[in-house]
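Hey everyone, long-time lurker, first post.

I ran two proteins through the pipeline my lab uses and got sequence/structure pairs for each. Pasting them in order. The first:
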Amino acid sequence: QRAVHPDRFGQRPLKEQSYSEQHSSLINKAYQTLLNPLSRGLYLLELNGVEPAQETDSDADSAFLMEIMEINEKLAEPKNEDSLEEIETLIKVKQDELTEEVTAAFERDDLQEAKKLLAKMKYFANLEDKLKKKKIPS
């Protein structure tokens, strides 16, 4: 990023400035993709030619779906700081566990397992987004 940063090309020809801006943007996008375990995992699936699980895929087990429903119900309850902190901790723990599991699946080249785990990670990412919205003061 340092080598192609636009600030280093301010006095250069327009073609080099354009090159710098384009590549700087690509580097930033790549960094953001690799920074997040979910987007990184989805990208690794894509690199290996595996389509990510769709919302309509029903591979998720019933116990997992029940857990997601319960967390959603807790999020729907009136705002309670203690409850929100408890949910936030639960989501973080689950995301950390899933990140470890998906890492192990990729390490043993089990792309179908990684696909299933990433689908579960999407559910928790959605819950995290709902939680963030709930925590924003009205």
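...and the second, right after it:
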Amino acid sequence: MGKAQKYVLLGDATYPLQDWILKPYQEDENLTQRQLQFNYRLKRAHSVIENAFLRLKARWQILLKCDDCSLELLPTLVLACCILHNVCEAHDNPFNEEWLEGTEPTELPKPCQPAPAAMEDNRAEQVRELMCQYFESCGES
């Protein structure tokens, strides 16, 4: 789109819009087709992330019991599981779908209300608009 962009995190409606957090447009009858497409793509990307974490927890079930370890150890534990997962994939040690039986997707508590508008960054709307343009230009995939 002619403008260099930083990496962004995906958030839902409860997060404040920041130039580093993409969140969907508020659902209402006034959304344009482009905005609806943006929300759809964001939701699809978010589901891929949820699935990836579900598979990671299924392969390395120690991640289901992380409340037993210290907060200082947690990032190292998650990183080790990610590296081991990549090693398994590189050596054709496939993911066993039966592992998913022991892991239920858990909903972590989230705020119920959207973040106050005062927390939102005005520059972030430009980033979201650029992403809308990009999705529109590349068509449905």
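Reply from user beta_strand_b:
Welcome! Quick read of the second one: The longest helix spans residues 33-59. The chain is about 45% helix and 5% strand.
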